[in-house]
Amino acid sequence: MLVVGASGNIGGAVVSALTRAGLAARAAGTHPTALENRYPGVEVARLDLLDPTTFAPALDGAAGMFLVRPPAIAKVGPTLNALLGVAERLQVGHVVFSSVTGADTNRVVPHHRVEERLRESALSWTILRPGFFSQNLADAYRSDIVNDDRILLPSGEGRAAFIDTRDIGDVAALVFAAPDAHRSAGYVLTGPQALNFDDVAALLTSELGRPIRYEPTSALPYLRHVHAQGRPWVQAIVQTVLHTGLRRGQAENVDPTLERLLGRPGRTLAQYVHDNRELWASPA
């Protein structure tokens, strides 16, 4: 299975889950040597979503493909959707796309156009729609936690049922092991409990042994804050839209699908923080 974005959180979890399940994985990314070092013994392929000449060689002979949109990719037409076109031409067996919750109806997020392209294709596919990732604490929120002991977001009192990307990897491996059972399915995936960001700050405070606070803000200041951290404007806009959506309850529902598929509860946010507490060590 070709795993797009193997250097990231979700793709990395999929490579690990496929390997544990005894399924062949082909880790794809722009830096093959780094992938070889990260995944000893796993096949590696160079894939650059901005370079269409890498698409066919990366997909050649692949029994399936796990697709995820890297945050830096804003235009999905010439990148992800073009890759799907090549996969269709090469008759790749099954595609699992990691989308986001609500992308089937939310035309603002880029994932919506990828879902449309999949549904229009002749490919066999499954769409995963996870909500907010536990790993956001190590990515989007990490700098503020480490440097300022705060979580700054435009999310108000909104709650999120955080999902660990390790569980997404396990679901993807399950789908690839029996694709016929999951063909044309769209699965909403959440963690086992919904927390607001005061809860998240309290959890971090307890685990790290220093006070972490949640600081609510509005959309425009947050957009500027994210861009000032070095993220492109398009990425900053998507991140802002997703977080302001929490105010309307867009990610608070705990869905039973993950537990039903895996036969176990999902990992909690507390488990994730405990397993990775060194990531938020204070610079002091």
UniProtKB/TrEMBL annotation:
Superkingdom of this protein's organism: Bacteria
Q: Where is the NmrA-like domain?
A: 2-218
Q: Which SUPFAM superfamilies match?
A: NAD(P)-binding Rossmann-fold domains
Check the record and name the Pfam families matching this protein: NmrA
PANTHER family reported in the protein's UniProt record: PRESTALK A DIFFERENTIATION PROTEIN A (PTHR43162:SF1), PTHR43162
Q: What is this protein called?
A: SDR family NAD(P)-dependent oxidoreductase
Source organism: Cellulomonas rhizosphaerae
Q: What is the lineage of its organism?
A: Bacteria, Bacillati, Actinomycetota, Actinomycetes, Micrococcales
